[in-house]
Each structure stands twice: as C-alpha cells, then as structure tokens.
Design brief:
14 strands, three-stranded parallel beta sheet, 41% helix
C-alpha cells in the first residue's frame, strides 16, 4: 500500500505531453459541434486549414490552460450554484476535454456544484432540459427496448453502465425524469410508477440485454427506491458484475471513515456500539457493509456482528414485535423487545435519545434526512460515555443534515470524530485549531471500485472486494498521522485515492478467482495506470474513413 505522496508521484502527468493522433472524418461545423472532438480556439493553424475551420474561429490559437482560465472566469461570474451548474453542463455539451480539464483543476470547488448540493438541478431537470444524454427507456416503448439499446451502444466499447429509475435521489425523493408528473413541462412518461411484476419484468428485460450484449461490463445501479434497491442487488449480483452505489458505495465510504476513526481511538470495529438513524437504503447498506467488515476483520459470527447495531427509523428503534412492518433486510438487526421496557418509550416508540442513554453508543450515523435529528441533548449524552464519540451526519443535501458539524464539535467539547455527506467548513477545536470535516462522499471510492472491477473483467463485485477498497481508502486517512485531522483524504485528491482503491479491488478480484484476465497481481498497478484518461487535446488528421 502506498502513501498519498507516493501515489501522486507515480501518477504524475505532464500536461504538455502530446496527445494521441485521431483520424477524424468530420469537418467544419460538424466538427465544432461534436463535444468529443471540439477544441474551440485550441485548434492549431494546420488543423484549421485541414478541417475548414479558418473562417469559423477567431484568429488566436489558445492553449488548454488559457481556455481553462477563461472558462473558470466565466463560471465565477455566475452567482448561484444552479447558475454555475448550468454553465458547466453547457460546457460539457460543447467540449469534453475542456470540461473535464477544468473540473480536474478545481475538483474540490466544482464537484459540489455538479454533484450533491445542487439538488435543484435535478428537481428542475424538466425546466432546465437542453440536450439529451445517454439512453432513456420508457415503459410504453417496451417492445423496442432491445432496438434502442443496440442503437445506443453501436460502435462503442462500453465497460460501465449507470442505470437509474430516479425514485430515491439524494434527500429529495422520487424525481422521475425531472420532478412533478403533472408539470406541463415534465419530459418523462406522465404516469404513476410501475410496481410489482410489470416493474420487475421491465427491469429484468434491461439487465438481460446487458448480460447478452455487454457481458463483461459493470452495471451500476443508482438512486433506486427503498423497496427495490436491496432486492434487485441480491437478485442479480451473482449473475453479473453489479454494484449499487446507494447501498455499497455509501456503505464502503462510511466504512472507510469508520475504520479511520477506529484507528484514531485505538479500538476495533467489533468493539463498537453503532446506532444508525435512518433505516432506508443507505442506512441498511452502511449496516451491512460495516457488519461484513466486522466479520472479516474481527472474526465475529454474522449473528454476533449484527448485535453491534441499533437501527432507528420513523417508528423508532426497530424491534422484533414490528413483525411484517420490518422491511426486507432489516430483520437481521431487529432488537429483542425484552431489552426494553415501557420507560424507554415515548408515545409508544423507542426514540433516539432513549437508545443513546441506554446503550451508550460509540458510533452515531445519520441517514434519516431528519434535519437537526442529532440534538444537543443527544450529542452531550453520547459524549458523557466515550472519549471520542464518532458522529457521522450523512444526510444530504446540506439542509437535511442531522446536525451541523460545528454544533456537534461544540457540544462534544471538541472530542467528536466527524464526517458528513456534503461539504462543510472546518469546525474550531478548543485549542483554536481548525478541525477539517471529512466529506463521506461516495465519489471518494466508487470510481475506484468500478475501475478495479472493470480492468480485471471481474465476474462479480464481491463483498470482500468492496472491503478491500474501503481499507485502501482508510489507509490514506490524514487522521492516522494526526488524530485531530480529517478522517478521509481531501476531495482534490480523489483521482489519486481512487487509483489506490482500484488497485486494492483488482488485486482482490484476482485473489478470489473472479478476474476474467490472464495477467496477475504484479501487473495491476501498471494496467490501471494505463487506463487513466487524461483530458488533453489530441492531434487531428483528416481521414474520410475516420471517426465521426
């Protein structure tokens, strides 16, 4: 395992390196409007002549650095995140290299704009719609699903597919193809959601197309609803390389942050008493991921590992007397009613504060979207009984977070080890030092999980592959060098971090016999390094038989 400095040195890339040569069949306006090949003002004088661009562009030839400076200045003139988001989406629709180069140079600043906090961009998708991307599959067109699928993948080497039914996006819920069904501008199918057999058959028809036509691809499920996410993962994960980001990605990055925190406290995962406040898709995924790691690293049985958790939803602590109300997957964590008495209940429910008082948790994780759910009383009660309370309010967007990290820091007298699901400013320690709040964001791990699986042509994404990725991420934690530093690496380092995650995942796939390649672990680092795409312009040569 390498440290972050060594990884950066190994992956160091000179932006002045000449790009690859492309044989291109497009000319003039067709070339300028193709985001894959558009260079804007960066076309060389030779290319402008060869591709009939001389009169279509201003005289000056700019470098990619100059273009990035200009684009950054243009973005900065936008006042709100949604305005910046629409600017960046427009840029991506025009010029892929410029978009990704700009993003990479300002990753910490820009990822929140194109990612979680700008939920408004998702909620208003139908109103912001400009250009279609990807493949839209609608039930009324079920009879042509294979035709549309084959048309979308024609001539493309596809190794990763992200699929969503958009039922559970962030903390804003069911969005379909852009919010309200009855909005006259809604761009999706204005119909209630399919349920039951029709839904399952339609999803299955898509999965079988992936298995048939792209058998070595990784299929990434995103933002599926609580009633479907876990069961679909269980249904398909042993027949294809399947990954559910909301369950496994969220679970993996949370596990990595917890491993870092446990390293700070000099304890073990199996020693923790863990409350998960919010027993939806993310909460269950986190519980399962941590439990798998406890079993793997500490040798506990599944039953004993499950007893380290207390899961709370809108009906209070999940207990066995809930009976049929207990959703699939949660029954492993239902507590015995005999552990509790009437004094533990408020309005017939066992609430968070009562659970904190009784079990004295070492870890408190929030995935509830209940803003302010971790009250001052809850945090102070927890802090009475542990030296370094581990508190992860993970709900996003930021307005739905269970507690502001600055408040959790103050209420715990600076003792809390903190991670959040969205970016927050540093909190002040009692000694005046800034405490950097780790962003427990899936983007720190799922690109690496995917790359490790893809590069090895892994037959499935196993639990141990995910744990290996989480361990790799945890090993890069700044808190392991300074216990008062962030639990996870800085977001600007995400590409380097994900490289190391990918290495760990790929090596584990080979060890488990899941890899579909003939090369061994000694080649993993170089193979993954070769797969990293750098956003630089290539050199274009006209060829009527070339790429269009």
């Amino acid at each position: 395992m390498l440290d972050l400095k060594s990884i950066k040195e190994a992956l160091k890339f000179n932006r002045d390196t000449p790009g690859p040569v492309f044989k291109v069949a497009l000319k003039g306006e067709a070339l300028l409007t193709n985001p894959r090949f558009n260079k804007g003002t960066a076309y060389t004088a030779k290319e402008r002549e060869e591709f009939n661009l001389v009169g279509r562009l201003p005289y000056q030839v700019n470098t990619l650095d100059q273009q990035c400076d200009r684009a950054y200045d243009q973005m900065q003139q936008r006042q709100t995140d949604i305005q910046k988001n629409t600017f960046l989406q427009s840029l991506k629709a025009q010029n892929w290299v410029l978009y990704y180069s700009l993003l990479g140079r300002h990753l910490r600043e820009m990822l929140p704009i194109v990612y979680t906090p700008t939920a408004e961009a998702i909620a208003n998708y139908s109103h912001l719609f400009r250009r279609s991307e990807g493949l839209f599959l609608s039930y009324p067109h079920a009879d042509r699903i294979e035709k549309d699928f084959l048309d979308a993948i024609h001539g493309r080497d596809i190794e990763l597919i992200v699929v969503s039914d958009a039922e559970a996006i962030l903390g804003i819920g069911d969005q379909g193809v852009g919010n309200l069904l009855h909005d006259p501008l809604y761009v999706g199918w204005s119909h209630k959601r399919l349920r039951g057999t029709k839904y399952d058959d339609y999803v299955d028809s898509f999965v079988q197309l992936v298995r048939k036509h792209l058998p070595q691809s990784l299929l990434h499920f995103e933002d599926f609803g609580v009633e479907n996410a876990q069961r679909l993962l269980e249904k398909y994960r042993n027949t294809h390389a399947i990954f559910n980001d909301d369950i496994q990605g969220t679970g993996a990055v949370t596990l990595a942050a917890l491993m870092s925190a446990v390293g700070v406290t000099k304890s073990k995962l199996g020693d923790q008493r863990i409350i998960i406040y919010g027993a939806g898709t993310a909460g269950l995924g986190i519980a399962n991921q941590i439990r798998d790691a406890i079993i793997t690293t500490d040798g506990l049985s599944k039953e004993d590992a499950s007893l380290r958790f207390w899961l709370i939803d809108k009906d209070g602590l999940i207990i066995k007397s809930f009976g049929p109300k207990i959703r699939h997957g949660l029954d492993d964590y239902a507590r015995d009613d005999s552990e509790w008495n009437d004094d533990d209940k408020t309005d017939g429910k066992i609430r968070l504060l009562q659970v904190v008082r009784k079990i004295k948790p070492t870890v408190l994780i929030g995935t509830s979207t209940h803003a302010g759910g971790f009250t001052e009383e809850v945090v102070k009660e927890m802090s009475k009984h542990v030296d370094r309370p581990i508190i992860f309010p993970l709900s996003n967007p930021t307005r739905l977070v269970e507690v502001k990290p600055s408040d959790a820091n103050d209420w715990s007298s600076g003792k809390a080890l903190l991670a959040t699901g969205s970016p927050f400013p540093p909190a002040k320690m009692p000694n005046g030092k800034d405490y950097i709040i780790a962003e427990c964001n899936n983007a720190l791990i799922y690109p690496g999980l995917g790359l490790g699986a893809v590069v090895t042509h892994s037959k499935k994404v196993s639990d141990s592959m995910i744990i290996a990725g989480a361990q790799a991420l945890a090993s890069l934690s700044p808190a392991l060098r300074d216990p008062d530093d962030a639990l996870l690496p800085d977001f600007q380092d995400a590409p380097d971090v994900n490289y190391e995650v990918a290495v760990a995942v790929a090596e584990h796939a080979i060890d488990e016999g899941l890899a579909g390649v003939e090369w061994g672990k000694d080649e993993v680092r170089e193979r993954i390094k070769q797969r990293i795409w750098h956003p630089i312009y290539g050199v274009y040569e006209f060829d009527p038989e070339g790429t269009q």
